[in-house]
Amino acid sequence: MKWQRFLSIPIFAVFLLMGFVYYVTLFVSIEDWVGLRSSDGSFHASVFSFLAFYSLFSFFVCVLTDPGRVPSSYVPDVEDRELSDQEFRRNVKHQRKCEICSTYKPQRCHHCRTCRRCVLRMDHHCQWINNCVGYWNYKAFFILVFFATVASIYSMVIFIACVLQKDWKVWGQSHLKLFYVVCGTPVLGLSMILGSLLCWHIYLMANNMTTIEYYGGVRARWLARKSGQGYRHPFNLGVYRNVTSVLGPNMLKWFLPAAVGHLKDGSSFRIAHDTRQIT
Ligand SMILES: [Zn+2]
Ligand SMILES: [Zn+2]
Description:
mainly alpha
């Protein structure tokens, strides 16, 4: 069932792009720059292959891991939020109920229209992995973006080194130039897109925020600024705690996409003491 997720055009496009960048890096850039069989060439080919295959492994983990399903027995615990007003409690219960699934939604859980179900700590639905990015696969998604970014920047640097050392007076035929433009454009584009995505998710992780919560909190931030107050995301517990809540407390396991033993059931999250807002 899970393997059926691979039967999608965007995933096929990802495999094609990965294969293309791998081919360009090894058989165009490294080969033309220092030669694949030289010691430098073998070193760069090995480093890039490791980065590429680790990205591929993380990609498989992202696609195959269930992002998080709400337990059928789940009922929201409004008592723990120290709410005294009955009406407010009813409102909270109402807001946390999914009208489509007819079940209660835990904090940070959202309904995904594409997956047609509620997803725990939903970040966003990603068509490139044909899956939601949620509580159980966010770590794998972050590691995928991290390694894919490092691999693309590595590939871009090798490509630029190759272009700079080439004697274009000898190799200056227009069809060869066109070949290098066709090879280089996806590598440069990918580095910029993945680099931006990585910066975005570093920001989100450092603030213990999901993409949905960021956009949901825009109005709250604006209102706070307007009234001269500071706004703090309710789940923001400080950078170190925020990062370890995703990557885990053991730094040796930070870059293992399937090491998620530190995660609990995904239905409740610690809230910073100075605020009770939910975004
Ligand atoms: Zn739902
Ligand atoms: Zn989804």
